[in-house]
């Protein structure tokens, strides 16, 4: 008997841009943030991920 399904917790955050329902997820906060960075570059090139924005993203991260 083997357990294939990973039971590891993951972290996720919904994009902080109004009207965008993109969700970024990863195993750690760092992974989530790098996903957010990639998403922002692709979907919101005008948005700058400064300290304040990253702080807002971090505050929204939830463990699922
Ligand atoms: Zn977005």
Automatic annotation (TrEMBL):
Entries under InterPro entries matching the protein: DUF1059
Superkingdom in the source lineage: Archaea
Pfam families: DUF1059
Full protein name: DUF1059 domain-containing protein
Native source species: Halodesulfurarchaeum formicicum
């Amino acid at each position: 008997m083997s357990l294939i399904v990973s039971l590891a917790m993951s972290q996720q955050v919904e994009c902080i841009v109004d009207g965008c329902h993109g969700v970024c997820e990863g195993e750690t906060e760092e992974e989530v943030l790098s996903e957010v960075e990639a998403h922002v570059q692709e979907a919101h090139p005008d948005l700058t991920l400064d300290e304040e924005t990253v702080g807002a993203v971090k505050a929204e991260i939830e463990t699922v």
